[in-house]
Amino acid sequence: MSRPADDKKPAAEPWKGFETYAQLCRALLPRAHVISIFDARGVLRWSTDSATAADITPIVAGALATADSAFESAGACHMLSGNKPVYVCWIRDNSRHLLALAAIACPPAGEREEPQSFQLVHTLLAPVLECLRRDLLARVALGKLKRTVAELNKMRRGAAVGSFDTLTGLYTRPAFESRVRLAVTSGEGSTGWISLYINVDQLHVINDNFGMRVGDSVLGQLGELLRGRLAPGAFAARISGDRFAALLPGNLDDAEHFGETLREAAEQLGNMQGNSRLRVSISIGVAALDSSGGELMHSLAAAETACKAAKDRGRNRVEVYRANDESLVRRFADINIAGQLHDAISSGRLRLDAQLILPFGNAAHLKRHYELLVRMIDEDGTAAGPARFMSAAIRYQLMQSIDRWVIETAVERVKACAGSFSGVPLSFAINFSGQSLSDESFGDFLIDRIRSCGLPPDIFCFELTENSAVASVARATDLMRRLRALGCGIALDDFGTGLSSLSYLRHLPVTMLKIDGSFVRDVVRDPRAESMVRAFAQLARTMSLTTVAEYVETEEIRARVATLGVDYGQGFAIAKPVPLDNLLTELTADPLVGAQRRFATGFG
User: Fold this and answer.
1) Residue 193 sits in which domain range?
2) 464: part of which helix (H) or strand (E)?
3) 413, 195, 225: which is closest to 302 by C-alpha?
4) Residue 171 gets which letter from DSSP?
């Protein structure tokens, strides 16, 4: 019989020191010959006879599937060669998960003697098995406690180099990230982890009205609230300024309840400051932590996304990130795409495409128009259109960078080829966004670029959506007038979707109306859409404006809008976008022949 060297010492880990249980087994079951302990994966951890235990190991491995599925079973009897019975007993934790297996091998029964039944043996050994179960649970808990204490000591030793925030007493962001990785990789929180992202609402207002001292006091009190409410195993950090994060073991419902109680407690921090009322509130995002999806800290961004949604939806609320909330999923996706877009801009992986805007037979002139469309080129060379990245570009304030890149690139490309198609009536439509319109320096940048490029200004037409123009009508009107004074065209895009389309139209110095595709798509099946397109065309003609029907996707739509008085059409039924460089190469080679070929199918 083997005897572990440290039998008489306190167990240093869960799988040492089981000699006492072996003796108890033999006292209750004298026929017990070899007693072995296996872990939940079937790995032999301790035995009174390692040679016999090696024969038992395959039996235990084959029986594991039964243990995982038969939760009400206590084990089974198996037979070794020579008619030797082995009683394999499951040892489960309080949640009925498999903790260990005890295998008791007995000598072979006589020729006419049946081995004792498993039920009888298990009943005899029940007191020993229960003591063993409790001992293992205590050893596992003690091991976790030791690891936690060791980690806390490690964090405490690192406090001098910035592991803890001095104002709130919580972790700093780097220490929090390290603690998160440790918790996940060490297997803590077996039921799962939930992340919370907490933001103090309008802290700048508190600082402006009551002073930084009061603002810091609010942050300190919020840190105290968090520390006082965290359950065992949970931890939190002040990650920057007015933002906090926490990681809780458990499920979404419990975490949402925790967030609500924290939010309500934060409201109570408000008080009278002189003659003014200090109001305190927080917005909280809650999300399940996905530790299997690559970079761990990136998976925490789902909680930040939910917090931003809470801000958008009125502040002082808790929002839970769920896969069926399309707005949250879109916002979360934008985080990834914004990073890709940043990389594409900085590394030059943007491309301009050009899409033909075709004149119908009743067009006042045959000037060719091309709308320039920006594409993002992925690292694998795939081109992605605005539908993929525009939401992220708008949300993360990247449109100004994109607009300036488009203008610079368009001017340089056209300028390089302009001598080859001089005298051919052409116009390139360039979009810019409401974000650029809000930039006070953008107007001067655009005017200076057109003046200095040496190209005839009427070769460019600048497009602005109706909603962007109306949102900043004074600045839009001023820039439009300056561009018109140079000779550039002005197109009002998505016309008809705004609430005040007609009232603003008479004040905006536009030359072209682009009828929104939502009307054009339905023009062949919805009499109201047809009537509106006809009305837009008639209104534009009385104001000497050119009209363009967007999203002309079928030949039937193309024929119908042409009969309604629309001047131009744009869409896949007319031409798909092509890289601008390819188009300029074709125009440079033979601009007039190219014009005839492209327009041959366009006249009614």
Assistant:
1) 162-322
2) strand 460-465
3) 195
4) B
In terms of domains, do 173 and 107 share one? no
Model confidence pTM above 0.70: no
Alpha-carbon distance 535 to 53, whole Å? 90
pLDDT tens track for 116-162: 999 999 999 999 999 999 999 998 888 888 877 777 676 666 554 56
Close Cβ partners of 66 (under 8 Å, ≥ 6 residues apart)? 73, 76
Separation between Cα atoms, residue 105 and residue 233, nearest integer Å? 41
Close Cβ partners of 254 (under 8 Å, ≥ 6 residues apart): 194, 248
pLDDT given for residue 3 in this prediction? 37
Q: Give the pLDDT confidence of 562-589 residue by residue, as tens digits.
A: 999 999 999 999 999 999 999 998 888 7
Could you tell me if 193 and 184 are in contact, meaning their C-beta atoms sit under 8 angstroms apart? yes
231 within some domain: yes
d(CA 33, CA 520): 87
CA distances from 512 to 367, 465, 520 (A): 13, 12, 16
Spell out the alpha helix ranges (H) of 280-419.
296-299, 301-312, 326-346, 386-395, 399-417
Do 211 and 69 belong together in one domain?
Answer: no
Total number of domains constituting the chain: 3
The whole-angstrom separation of Cα 599 and Cα 574 is 10
| Type of residue found at 505 | L
Of 322, 299, 169, the C-alpha closest to 247 is 299
Bridge partners of residue 36, in order along the sequence = 47, 103
The gap between the terminal CA atoms of the chain, to the nearest Å, is 102
Residues 106 and 234 in one domain: no
* Residues in the chain, overall count: 604
Q: Tokens at residue 136, please?
A: 């293992």
